[in-house]
């Protein structure tokens, strides 16, 4: 078969992998022979439905794109997942953006319980960004799914871009494309107003969205982050690490030497301290199982993939081993399992609590001041 290329973005046409650039169903290629216009599925959806679909690119391609961002004078809008900051940080982004301003957008705010104060979340995101070497000019919380704070985001972008182009960057699974689509809808008021010619997918690496003053918003493909728990689960089980509804907290009274399994995705050991209630913030459907710390290793080996799910029976073989992280807590703190949720602990200076948090190898576990 001769090599074919999308006339919208220049990507080489392929029919094998829906996640990669240039994907086109074989039936569309046959139709294109009649019309003489061959678009990849991404460009087709953009032209006809004004929907931006994320594609996956290689690390090298993404590095090349970041260099382009660094070489331009632009506002960089970095979209992260509030629920999975560790898994949604772009490694080395601070080096590449050079002197450009960064606006940090924490997406999926709707997942957090209503009792969580916005100020605490934005402060925590800013602190974590600083640890990564980023100095965002502002932090804003949104929900792309519910169109929450999209107008505020647009006003914020307009305030900080100062007539410059805008690059929207983020790893896969943070909701970046949904956010971009929400911005388009908000700007136009009615998506039917947008003519397809206004969205030239000029190159494979980005989509240009023209602004009134001649500048552009560049939507960039999502880079795959190796440390996202989502990469180890089937599509059916992704819901446990990408909740769609507000989390309902559950409190467990634990004695020392007790363990709480988070399905088969993680584990919480209460090692030392007074009996207390630990409040868990995870997807409402994730099954938490309490057992004795003694024998917990054997219990996990025996039941992971069955009683302790996810991972499912077919995922167990490829699922990373759980790695232990021990902490001594002397204040009200959260233990955060990156991309999964967190557990609130009531420690005191004169009565510290010792716990161990287990997460899949490569998946981060961090502590923070309690959000609630």
From TrEMBL:
Transmembrane segments: none annotated. Residues 63-226 form the CP-type G domain. CDD domains: YqeH. It comes from the Bacteria. SUPFAM superfamilies: P-loop containing nucleoside triphosphate hydrolases (SSF52540). PROSITE patterns: G_CP. InterPro entries: G_CP_dom, GTP-bd, GTP-bd_ribosome_bgen_YqeH, Mito_lipid_metab_GTPase, NOA1/YqeH-like_C, P-loop_NTPase. One of its GO terms (molecular function) is GTP binding. PANTHER family: GENETIC INTERACTOR OF PROHIBITINS 3, MITOCHONDRIAL. This is CP-type G domain-containing protein. It comes from Streptococcus henryi.
